[in-house]
TrEMBL record:
UniProt source species: Candidatus Pullichristensenella stercorigallinarum
Name by which UniProt lists this protein: Site-2 protease family protein
Domain of life from the UniProt record: Bacteria
GO BP term (any one): proteolysis
GO cellular component, one term: membrane
Keyword annotations of the record: Hydrolase, Membrane, Metalloprotease, Protease, Transmembrane, Transmembrane helix, Zinc
Amino acid sequence: MIVNILYILLAIVLLGVLVMVHEFGHYIVGRLTGMTVLEFSIGFGPKLLGWRRKEIDYSLRLIPLGGYCSFLGEDENNNDPRAMNNQPVWRRFLTIFAGPAMNFVFAFVVCVVMLMGYFTAGIASPTVESLYADMPAEQEGLQAGDVIVSANGEEIEFSEEGAQYLRALIADSPVDEPIEFTVERDGELLSFSVMPALVTDEQTGASSYMLGIVFEGRTYTFGEALAQAPRTMANFVGMMLDSLKNLVFHGEGASDVTGPVGIISVVSEVAREGFYMVLYILFVISLNLGLMNLLPLPALDGGRLVFLIVEAIRRKPVPPEKEGMVHGIGMLLLLGLIVVITYQDIARLITG
């Protein structure tokens, strides 16, 4: 019981770190461009801890579902020359954009650390490095050193992308159909038909179909990690955009959407698997936060950026009361969505 509580607290701390990174982006760029910051807060609701330094209030609040960086003149007209409403459009644009941008920067740093420190992050090729005993791949005769050149008739690139494709193919394969492999062994092409086996994780109780293949992996040097990290991030962002498109236009994955409660639950479970998975989940959620906040929706950073673009085109700002009304409605809808998703998360936890 105590261990579970500690992992939940760790998940809350990690979520707080990501919120702090995002809000720090707004904060640091706002200060660098000469704006007056009123408050920098992690969390919402009642204040747990607070202090004041150089006329800025800093606070840690009860509900760890977000945070905010409040600027003078952010939601109203103020005559102070350091107020946000008196700054040029480009300064306000950079300040708002800096929040999501910091999430991407943080994800980049975490990605570099993963690539340098953990071979599982740096799959080099679709080469069998080792096999789990008594698993289908070993039982059917695959051997360490085999290079998989095709699967189910699809040619496999000898690259990291080829290995990643294989992992996805194995994970998504029909449970009642074998996977047809062609491998190169000592210059000879051999064919194998391997049926996935259901494997249950003893710690988490989660079940998945596996073949028992460990693909060749390696860590990256610092220079290689710097070069590879943007490609890794681009691949993940592409997958996130595809998922978002399928969700919006086809409703696919609607039942899998999670809110803060679900995220804390997932992170607390994943963290048990070790430090690499902590880094991995930080990487994925940070990318998600950056991407979601750039969506052109009211109450999100992307929606505020849209109003600034309109202001730049019109050469005059949208009346604050109209913009505030749009963001207010957006915030109500967003809070309503969070309530629905949170109910769904809690129902999942109760029913298992």
